[in-house]
Write a structure and sequence with these properties.
Helix content: under 10%
CATH class: Mainly Beta
Number of domains: 1
CATH topology: Porin
CATH superfamily: Capsule assembly protein Wzi
Strand content: over 45%
Largest sheet: 18 strands, antiparallel, barrel
Radius of gyration: 22 Å
Distance between the termini: 57 Å
Structural class: mainly beta
Oligomer: single chain
Number of strands: 25
Order of helices and strands: HHEHEEEEEEEEEEEHEEHEEEEEEEEEEE
CATH architecture: Beta Barrel
């Protein structure tokens, strides 16, 4: 089946989902760490407020910080930063017991070669039972206790600042059950429709990003859950080099072609007939709730054309397993093991390179940061991707370290990263690097004190060591 027909089905399914009225009890997704102030006390108070002030000081033995000290930091830390500080605030009010509105704002500053003072978040968020709508820039929820190398999907990580735009999505599975008072079981659906602006800090100024995803969900009576779905992204519109005479097609009819996956198989060649830069992924999750813990198997298959959609580039993608204990005070409360590979991306007879494009030359980046798994490396000049051919094994674990009467929350990441460069820019010899990172909360009151350390170890790429101090001051509602 061609991409346009699959994506047309996704479009229709999304429309059907927004009209579904059978509501089940709220589902707690595996590893979800949201920041919504969703409490009964909030409803009773009318409006709830919170604010957080953060300061980070960092240093390293090289010009750039170790890998995990700057990656997946939602754009708050640059690789060459020594200082980063940000403040965020939000307010929430319930309209009734089934719906609420939240607004949030935040500013961030970090130093480096390019000192930057920018908007961290600025959004309005509405939820009604299973539906959520967000306008503006809002950080994505952190999954897997922050241990994954890419969070939700191999194409959509925590490695970049939130994009401005509009999101309409389900906030949990909608089950086609006949009795809303029973434990949700059987077949259900999740969906999202999102439109973003990519801004002018790129080769194609004013480009836009379309995203949608659709998942089918099956939950059994013995606590098994299976999810299978597809993500579709498309960069379109804008002006290459800011030249009005070269403006890309951006009418409503062009948009209809974009969302159905048409006009996008050009690889690295610059073809005026190409309408958009498409990419996507299949997802498959299997979860099981045991008495004292949960397990989840994770699979992402990525593609950028019909060849990849037909698994011509198999086994490229992400494979993982996640464990989470019910007891949050354990030494090892959770862990994740992931494997990433992108070594089979070249289609016979054609030049294909993940996250690169002949027209949208900034590639799969936003504000010079990769929007997918951080093992992809953007070119220093902002034109394309230097490293998109790699195989990586990632392990993360977290829990609490016994320390007198106080157990220290910690997170540990260890990653083996084999880099080959790209088909047009080989790294010879290939680089093999081990990235390590540890973070521990040593004091947790209104003022929270975190210590972190990281290291990149590799005979081919050299070694780098770094450490940092992170202070967090939380302003509670009663402080207002």
């Amino acid at each position: 089946m061609k991409i346009k027909y699959i994506l047309l089905i996704m479009t229709l399914a999304g429309i059907i989902t927004t009209g579904h009225s059978q509501i089940e009890e709220k589902d707690e997704d595996l590893g979800y760490e949201g920041e919504i102030l969703d409490t009964t006390e909030t409803y009773e108070r009318g409006v709830d407020y919170s604010a957080v002030v953060n300061f980070k000081g960092m240093f390293s033995t090289e010009d750039e910080l170790p890998f995990w000290m700057s990656r997946n930091k939602v754009g708050r830390v640059a690789p060459d930063s020594n200082i980063s500080t940000w403040i965020t605030g939000k307010a929430l009010t319930y309209l009734n017991l089934d719906s609420f509105i939240e607004v949030g704002a935040g500013l961030v500053y970090f130093d480096g070669v390019n000192d930057e003072f920018a908007i961290d978040e600025l959004y309005a968020h509405y939820e009604y039972k299973w539906l959520q709508i967000t306008a503006g820039q809002k950080h994505e929820p952190i999954l897997y206790n922050g241990l994954s190398a890419t969070n939700e999907n191999m194409l959509w990580s925590l490695n970049h600042r939130p994009l401005p735009g509009l999101q309409i999505a389900t906030n949990r599975p909608i089950f086609f059950s006949s009795n809303q008072y029973e434990e949700p079981q059987g077949l259900g659906i999740e969906a999202a429709w999102e439109e973003y602006f990519l801004g002018n800090d790129r080769y194609v100024e004013g480009a836009m990003l379309h995203h949608k995803n659709l998942r089918l969900v099956y939950r059994s009576s013995n606590d098994w859950e299976v999810k299978a779905g597809i993500h579709h992204f498309a960069q379109w519109g804008g002006k290459p080099g800011g030249d009005d005479s070269e403006k890309r097609p951006s009418s409503f009819s062009d948009y209809l072609e974009v969302i159905t996956g048409q006009g996008g198989e050009s690889g690295l060649a610059e073809d005026a007939d190409v309408l958009a830069n498409h990419l996507g992924s299949y997802e498959f999750f299997v979860s099981k709730q045991f008495l004292n813990y949960r397990l989840q198997f994770i699979y992402n298959h990525i593609f950028e054309d019909s060849w990849g959609m037909g698994f011509g580039n198999f086994p490229d993608g992400r494979y993982g397993i996640y464990y989470e204990d019910v007891d949050t005070e354990r030494l090892f409360n959770s862990f994740i093991l992931e494997y990433y590979t992108t070594r089979n991306q070249r289609q016979p007879g054609q030049l294909r390179e993940y996250f690169s494009h002949g027209i949208y030359r900034s590639g799969w980046t936003y504000m010079d940061r990769i929007m997918g798994a951080p093992f992809f490396t953007p070119a220093p000049d902002g034109m394309g991707i230097d490293n998109n051919k790699f195989s990586t094994i990632h392990f993360g674990t977290g829990g609490r370290l016994p320390f007198g009467t106080y157990n220290l929350p910690y997170k540990l990441l260890v990653t083996y990263d084999h880099r080959e460069g790209s088909w047009t820019n080989h790294i010879i010899p290939n680089e093999n690097v081990i990235h390590t990172y540890v973070n521990a909360t040593v004091y947790d009151r209104a003022l929270k004190v975190n210590l972190e350390a990281g290291a990149d170890l590799g005979a081919d790429a050299g070694s780098n060591f770094g450490a940092g101090l992170h202070l967090v001051y939380e302003i509670e509602p009663q402080d207002f």
